[in-house]
């Protein structure tokens, strides 16, 4: 599932997946290969323009050039345009990385001729039917009918209410393993409208994301520390496995049979590790959202970490801290917590984290050296002692409650500190003693 607030901060957009089955491949294969040929045409024309004119062609230029091609007529017009838009999104990412100093990045390249590219149908590219969807093609071609199970457009919110969504985007993706299509997956994005949320004057919870810890502070004086070392260990193990595969691949000849087999094995192993990491991330954000719901939280405050990785790469932080910052998916965690909160009627906002880690929550004194080693905070002025991430979450809460004045004394005293750890047996975060959470 995914969450977006492009049109309204309280609008709920969710994506659900429906397996179609590999037996539908003969219907979708020509459509997906046509999308792949449009992608390759974009790559070819962009290279030609760069060689002749030393510039990148714009999006409208490519759409105007290819709209009369035969392959363009295989798809619905908006589906064909979506391929060009995806190509330019990849080009923008490549150029941004190059501007940030990543000289090893390469521009989007050609795909194999028989590559099954994911095809997108926008709102005018499909019909909603009583039993499913009708995916349109170009004029004169029959749409592809996809039957779906009963209740395919209905979700049940945590409070028990059923909400019917309106499909706004459809994607068909092929799951290929060992050169064989194992399944076709239909991704449908639903618009469930603006969800009613609690008044902003209610209780507040603030969150401080860290690589190995996640801290929570509420306006009731309750502090929660989620120990994320298991998640961090999984990410580090994935990086180690990836490095081992890359070292082996570097010694093999390009295009050889052994290299292709090793590439396939690399994909299978990394996919399994990625699923494990995503599960832990969803379990963490669900536990946070459930805590907010049970405690009646109205507003969840997350730190705005825009530019964090860029500042870490300038040498302001050490090598280990830089590595931890770059391997944690802060944006994905924030998005997951945002839509889970919205399903429970809780609004999510982002506030800057500037000076929250170097200011005392109790007295408001700013002194970076008060953050001791191993994540311990001890104020030099008032002697207030606390885990450093909890101190940062408290300052983020103070920023919300006092109108951006973290130099003031604490508006809420610390009453309770709880610790949470990952339980391997039940695959979820559980409440543990302070000694077990250390």
TrEMBL record:
<protein>
    <submittedName>
        <fullName>Mobile element protein</fullName>
    </submittedName>
</protein>
<feature type="domain" description="Cas12f1-like TNB">
    <location>
        <begin position="332"/>
        <end position="396"/>
    </location>
</feature>
<keyword id="KW-0238">DNA-binding</keyword>
<dbReference type="Pfam" id="PF07282">
    <property type="entry name" value="Cas12f1-like_TNB"/>
</dbReference>
<dbReference type="InterPro" id="IPR010095">
    <property type="entry name" value="Cas12f1-like_TNB"/>
</dbReference>
<dbReference type="GO" id="GO:0003677">
    <property type="term" value="F:DNA binding"/>
</dbReference>
């Amino acid at each position: 599932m995914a969450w977006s607030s492009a049109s309204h901060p309280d609008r709920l957009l969710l994506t659900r997946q429906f397996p179609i089955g590999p037996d539908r491949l003969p219907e979708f294969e020509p459509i997906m290969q046509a999308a792949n040929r449009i992608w390759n045409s974009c790559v070819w024309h962009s290279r030609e323009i760069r060689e002749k004119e030393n510039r990148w062609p714009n999006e409208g230029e490519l759409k105007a050039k290819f709209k009369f091609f035969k392959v363009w007529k295989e798809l619905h017009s908006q589906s064909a345009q979506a391929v060009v838009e995806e190509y330019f999104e990849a080009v923008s990412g490549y150029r941004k990385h190059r501007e940030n100093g990543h000289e090893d990045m390469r521009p989007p390249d050609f795909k194999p001729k028989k590559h099954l590219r994911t095809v997108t149908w926008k709102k005018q590219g499909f019909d909603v039917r009583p039993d499913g969807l009708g995916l349109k093609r170009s004029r004169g071609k029959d749409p592809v009918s996809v039957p779906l199970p009963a209740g395919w457009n209905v979700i049940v919110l945590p409070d028990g209410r059923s909400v019917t969504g309106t499909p706004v985007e459809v994607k068909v993706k092929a799951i290929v393993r060992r050169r064989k299509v194992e399944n076709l997956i239909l991704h449908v994005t639903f618009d469930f409208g603006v969800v009613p949320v609690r008044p902003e004057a209610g209780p507040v919870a603030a969150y401080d994301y860290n690589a190995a810890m996640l801290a929570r502070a509420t306006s009731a004086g309750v502090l929660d520390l989620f120990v994320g070392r298991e998640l961090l260990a999984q990410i580090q193990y994935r990086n180690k496995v990836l490095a081992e595969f890359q070292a082996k691949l570097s010694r093999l000849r390009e295009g050889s049979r052994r290299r292709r087999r090793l590439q396939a094995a690399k994909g299978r192993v990394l996919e399994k590790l990625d699923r494990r990491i995503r599960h832990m991330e969803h379990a963490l954000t669900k536990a946070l959202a459930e805590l907010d719901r049970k405690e009646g939280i109205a507003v969840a405050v997350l730190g705005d970490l825009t530019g964090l990785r860029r500042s870490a790469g300038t040498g302001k932080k050490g090598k280990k801290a830089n590595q931890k910052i770059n391997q944690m998916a802060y944006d994905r965690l924030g998005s997951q917590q945002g839509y889970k909160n919205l399903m429970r009627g809780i609004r999510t906002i982002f506030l800057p984290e500037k000076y929250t880690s170097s200011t005392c929550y109790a007295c408001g004194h700013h002194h970076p050296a008060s953050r001791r080693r191993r994540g311990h905070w001890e104020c030099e002025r008032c002697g207030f002692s606390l885990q450093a991430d909890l101190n940062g979450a408290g300052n983020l809460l103070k920023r919300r409650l006092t109108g951006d004045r973290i130099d003031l004394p604490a508006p809420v005293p610390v009453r309770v500190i709880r610790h949470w750890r990952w339980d391997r047996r039940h695959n979820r975060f559980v409440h543990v003693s302070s000694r077990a959470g250390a």
